Amino acid sequence: MEMGRSMSLLQMMVNEGLVPCGEEEMKRRNAIDKLKKIVVEWVKTVTYQRGLPKKYLKFASGTILTYGSYGLGVYNSESDIDALCVGPYFATIAEDFFIVLHNMLASRPEVSEIHCVKDARVPLMRFKFDGISIDLPYARLKVISIPENVDVFNPFFLKNIDDTSWKSLSGVRANRSILHLVPNIEVFQAVLRCIKLWAKRRGVYTNLLGFFGGIHLAVLSAFICQRHPSASLSALILLFFKIFALWPWPTPVILQDQIARPLIPTDKVSWMPIQLPCSPYEFCHSNITRSTFYKIRNEFLRGHMLTKDMFSPDFDWNILFEPFPYARRYGLFVKIFLSASDKDELGDWVGWVKSRFRCLLVKLEELLGFCDPNPTEYVDTDASEPNVTFYWGLPTGRADLIKADLVEEYFLKSVDNGLNHNSTTGTMKLSIVKEYQLPKKAQSVCERKHTKPSWRVVDGNRKKTPSQSKYKPHCANDYLPTSENPKYPRAGG
Question: pTM score, two decimals?
């Protein structure tokens, strides 16, 4: 019966489209290969522009390292790719990455919807490559040449790198540590696929809204696989909910790697601390608040109550993955309406406001004691301008304790704080609505699949800058070398 439960769960993952086919794998592999070639050409372009010695043109190079769901092998047809661009010491993020590489990518026919996210905790470029969404942060190492499969744990490459590069590298380092530490990669991947589907359906997935991100769920899944290396898939899912429903938070979750348990300063303790597996002193970045901790813990308990009856004749996996019923659970919602003059500007505006959502969540907790931020992004079809709308669940019958205009004024101050005044901005409107005022799509239990809206559109009439005519091509015959000695060694063969 246990093996039967495991097989039915695997079949469910296939039916949900969570297991990629060979065509999907090839499509992503080709996109990464093309992107690597562009990055190598970009490094040589920057080498020429910097006036570095001619011999650098031969050796200077960069590469692309994947991480996230693609790096862990748990992506599906709707997943984006987290890809890290790694470059040499002389290629800066402000000029060379966000300007030169941006223009080179924008000129490519495979690339669309490209824009820069410079104010994020980890700055990156976001675009589509052959229709695949890609998030591309940047890390530069104190070397001239980056090997294609650079060892991100080698102290030689990590010496004296800047803070932004260190943060950008942490995703790759964490992924590779997890794959090294789990006893069976295929079993771990199956567990993680299931847990991610559960988290998305139950509304506890999206780090910016105070819930889990991909790295949190990956570490929790790896932790269960480590502790029970011979258990079946169905048994591991049962154990996942049993262990974390009863976990004594804020005791941190730490993967076993013969690393001494770190001392956590009291001011650093989060509600659910989860250690990054690549470092004994760093923890996964978390936005969890009192409300989201309560929601996550309740979902762990619900999962435990359901899966402990796994071997009863009428057990059904679909109940575990049933979408969270926001409209049935809450009678009151705060509506967050974000709009901009066109779809091009809306993406940047929504991304910036979402990065400040934790401030709004904490304020609503102060006023009402609880708030459940639904991660699903809706579109208000009654509005004329492009928009994205959120509906967050509030305690029923407490509308008299909150004035939407005052909360909106408070949150706008947080949104304005740190905003580059040269950046594109939009409008925001907060209001309190009741369950019957929700749009039909929000009144339904939940969307069956968690998808990201496509905010940006490509203007076919817009001129693209031809990067290869603007920048010196790789065959620079008239290149004049300098007499400078290289400050940094060349890495790789």
Answer: 0.86
